[in-house]
Specification:
Strand content: 15-25%
Largest sheet: 7 strands, parallel
Number of domains: 2
Bound molecules: 1,4-dihydronicotinamide adenine dinucleotide
CATH class of the largest domain: Alpha Beta
Strand order of the largest sheet: 8-7-6-9-10-11-12
Distance between the termini: 24 Å
CATH superfamily of the largest domain: NAD(P)-binding Rossmann-like Domain
Structural class: alpha/beta
CATH architecture of the largest domain: 3-Layer(aba) Sandwich
């Protein structure tokens, strides 16, 4: 049996991981705690650990895990910006789930856009109180509006197809444009200037941190709607709040938030929220915050458990598996993964 310590478990994770664990010879120990400096030592005696997006895995934690004999970090997510992949290189192998349901995330992005545009969040509350007034609920037709999509990978492409279904004009920016897509790729500045709505579907990297900031917001149309289902760090939340207060940003849909780490995925009702920026954003009538929920469909949970357990088994059985990541990945000369080898 392969022994894996599973951090940050939620009730919806357990059925899938128990099923695939049993079938594939993995014994999971489920822990509710996040992985952090206090809980890293619990991994002693395990072959690997399984973590999610808000488990921060820095150099110190990597070193402690390594000294305790942990050989594998199996991420239950696509993004791996929470892991110091450079520090892990040569010590612990890192695997991720590159896609579990791009439909789930793209559909959630559109659900948020539709909600904020047509104020269904307000209508829901009003009619429960028998308030049938329509005042203040006016939206716009999405048909013929321009949506700017940043990142045209798996999720971005599906979101684009959904937008096209609504008769929207799509423009896009990607660091690596896909020549096979029939898409109008533009530079970022042009995208900011022309878009009625902007949806983020690129990974968070050092170069695009705070891509949405006071300067880029200034370039945008007055009334622009911003949708972020990607990573919180892509948006400077204070600048976004200012843009909203100045009535320049028409609405914001945030499924992710830069400082979400200790908040999202947990029930904090009854607690005082120390984060003034998040509190102010939530208080705005034209901001919709969901707590990193975009992925949460039955299909995605099934696929996450399936791929993560396959990654674990492949690693320990020495099978080829392209879901390993390291800081050299993508680098033409050095990337061993491209040659179907382990990263080190
Ligand atoms: P993907 O890897 O298929 O596509 C990402 C695209 O972004 C690629 O086309 C890539 O060329 C492009 N890109 C890379 N760097 C860029 C940059 N600096 N500027 C513009 N484009 C850039 O990834 P996928 O599956 O479409 O996921 C996109 C993001 O969605 C993930 O990185 C993750 O952060 C987020 N995500 C959020 C979830 C949620 O529940 N809210 C769930 C799953 C993913």
């Amino acid at each position: 049996m392969i022994k894996i310590l599973f951090y940050d478990v939620k009730p919806y994770d357990i059925p899938g991981f128990e099923k695939f664990g049993k079938e594939r010879g993995i014994a999971f120990k489920f822990l509710e705690s996040h992985l952090n400096h206090d809980t890293a030592s619990l991994a002693k005696g395990y072959d690997g650990i399984c973590v999610f997006v808000n488990d921060k895995i820095d150099k110190e934690i990597i070193d402690e895990l390594y000294q305790n004999g942990v050989k594998l970090i199996a991420l239950r997510s696509a993004g791996f910006n929470n892991v110091d992949v450079k520090a892990a290189f040569g010590k612990i192998h890192i695997y991720r789930v590159p896609a579990y349901s791009p439909y789930a995330v793209a559909e959630h992005a559109m659900a948020m856009l539709l909600t904020m545009n047509r104020r269904t969040h307000k209508a829901y509350i009003r009619t429960r109180d028998y308030n049938f007034s329509l005042n203040g609920l006016t939206g716009v037709d999405l048909h013929n509006k321009t949506v700017g999509v940043i990142g045209t990978g798996k999720i971005g492409k599906i979101f684009i197809d959904i937008c096209k279904g609504f008769g929207m004009n799509v423009i896009a920016y990607d660091k690596f444009p896909n020549p096979n897509y029939d898409l109008e790729y533009v530079e970022l500045e042009e995208l900011f200037k022309r878009s009625d709505f902007i949806s983020l579907h690129c990974p968070l990297t050092e170069e695009n941190k705070h891509l949405i900031n006071k300067d880029t917001i200034k370039l945008m149309k007055k009334g622009v709607g911003i949708i972020n289902t990607s990573r919180g760090g892509l948006v400077n939340a204070i600048d976004l709040l200012d843009g909203i207060k100045e009535r320049h940003v028409g609405f914001a849909c945030l499924d992710v938030y830069e400082e979400e780490g200790d908040l999202f995925f947990e029930d904090r009702s009854g607690h005082i929220l120390d984060d003034d920026t998040l509190r102010s954003l939530i208080a705005m009538p034209n901001v919709l915050v969901t707590a990193h929920q975009a992925f949460l469909t039955e299909e995605a949970l099934f696929n996450i458990a399936d791929t993560t357990t396959k990654n674990i088994v492949d690693f320990f059985n020495g099978n080829n598996n392209s879901n390993e990541v390291c800081y050299l990945c993508g680098n033409q000369e050095n990337c061993k993964r491209k040659r179907k080898e382990k990263c080190f």
